[in-house]
Amino acid sequence: MDKTWRVIDTGLRPAAENIALNRALLEARQAGEIPNTLRFLRFRPSALLGYHQSAEQELDLDYCRANNIAVQRRITGGGAIYFDETQVGWELYLTKEILGCADMEQIARRICVAAARGISALGVEARYRPRNDIEVEGKKISGTGGAFEGNALMYQGTLLLRFDVEKMLRVLRIPAEKLSDKAISSARERVTNLADLLDQVPDLEVVKAALTEAFAREFGVSFVPGNLAAAELARYQDALAEIDHPDWVNLIDLPAADMPILQASRKFPGGLLRVSLAFDARAGRIRQVWFSGDFFVSPKRAVVDLEAVLRNVQLDGLEEIIRSFFARQQADLLMLTPDDFAAVIRQALG
Amino acid sequence: MALVRGCNFPDDLYYNVDDNVWARHESDGTIVVGMTTYSCALSGEIVAWTAKKVGRVVDQNKSTGTVESGKWVGPVKAPVSGEIAAINEAAVAVPSTINADPYGAGWLVRMKPYDWAGESSSLLTGLAAAEAFEAKMQTEGFPGCA
């Protein structure tokens, strides 16, 4: 096995170029044209959809247009994100052989745990939260996702150095009352960034070095700096022609009405529980849930962890998912019960 | 039916072991394509399936569409070349059908193959398929279908 991997930094680019490079590098890795690679990247302000998402359903397109925010579709799964110069992206391009495992969840876990170690080296306590987040004190600091092609795979994540929560709330159509103080503070309970956690935001080169070192340790390899190869650049031009095009961005085009944002609140003996959720009516799935209200749960992060567990779940299993979450989690609910969380969701669904 | 590490592989299907897909040759000459139980086990719960449009021509080992599970996105490859003749809309609407019944209700696309007689010779059946899947599971460190 080759113990020397390549590390590249493709700099600050528009979203279309970055996504086209995803496609080009993944294909080039599959074709054996490039070595295993760690890539760092940054974005000009962009709203990035998950591969199977619809812009109408996920984004405030008028706001994006008015504020020069590019709308693009990733080649990886998961949810829409707002990505700008305040974040850095990291990506691994590998073959399955070097992982000795083909189970997608285990691969994601291994890479995320390593990335969390790298982030922790910067002076915070970052941890992997299944299935795809890296969190600090229960707040998300890095979201991740992957794509595969034959025996090659690409796994990517963000890292929030600083972050404009208000902008994120404006760009994304998420289940929160837009721009109210409550929404902003409730978003701050769910996402964090290095600037909020550290006295001083580390230099980008320091961040890159910490992540590179963590992946080097995890895989027992050393990284050698490199540049994009001719084969990649050729594939990149082809990919860019496809991706920098409305047909690609509108590949999945579903009306916002098919994914309503629903709300409900209810007073239980354990307190007032409010829920706001995005519901995919077509698939019968909850896409995203936010709980708020006036109730006691300790540790507080249990609520956010529950929200993470409830991402993209089929409605049928709702009660069971919540019950087994609280059975695993050592959380003190006082008078509130797991079924109360399910009940308020059911109420929102009408 | 072959059972390999708890994953079943029906005898009447043709398999591309590398791509982890199956084809069933129907009496009208079309083929039905889907993911294997092994592929479903590796993926975990499938949350989205988007097929190429009906009428699109797909080469052998190229993508018939895209599945998503646990934020991973990847192609489902065509076992042979042909034209997409139908899409399983039930699997599009409820993608977990694919996990629940990958050889039945969870089929993915129907294709009109261009050269079934020629290209199907590259696919494996029966014992040969079972042995190849066992070898693949060995390489990939797969403990078994639950």
Word description of this protein:
The complex is a heterodimer of chains A (350) and B (146). Chain A has 350 residues and is of the alpha+beta class. Chain A has two domains: 4-249, 2-Layer Sandwich (BirA Bifunctional Protein, domain 2); 259-349, Enolase-like, domain 1 (2-Layer Sandwich), CATH 3.30.390. Chain A is 38% helix and 29% strand. Chain A has helices at residues 15-30, 55-58, 61-66, 96-99, 104-120, 165-171, 181-188, 194-197, 204-219, 230-243, 246-249, 301-309, 318-328, 338-349; strands at 4-13, 37-43, 46-49, 70-73, 81-83, 87-95, 126-129, 133-136, 139-149, 152-160, 222-225, 261-268, 271-280, 285-295, 313-314. In chain A, a hairpin with a 2-residue loop joins strand 8 (133-136) and strand 9 (139-149). In chain A, helix 13 packs antiparallel against helix 14. Chain B has 146 residues and is of the alpha+beta class. Chain B has a domain at 20-121: OB fold (Dihydrolipoamide Acetyltransferase, E2P) (Beta Barrel), CATH 2.40.50. Helices cover 24% and strands 35% of the residues of chain B. Chain B has five helices and eleven strands, in the order E-E-E-E-E-H-E-E-E-E-E-H-H-E-H-H. A six-stranded antiparallel sheet of chain B has the order 3-4-5-11-10-7. Chain B has a three-stranded antiparallel sheet with strand order 6-8-9. Classes of the chains: A alpha+beta (350), B alpha+beta (146). Strand 9 (139-149) of chain A pairs parallel with strand 9 (72-77) of chain B, so a sheet runs across the interface.
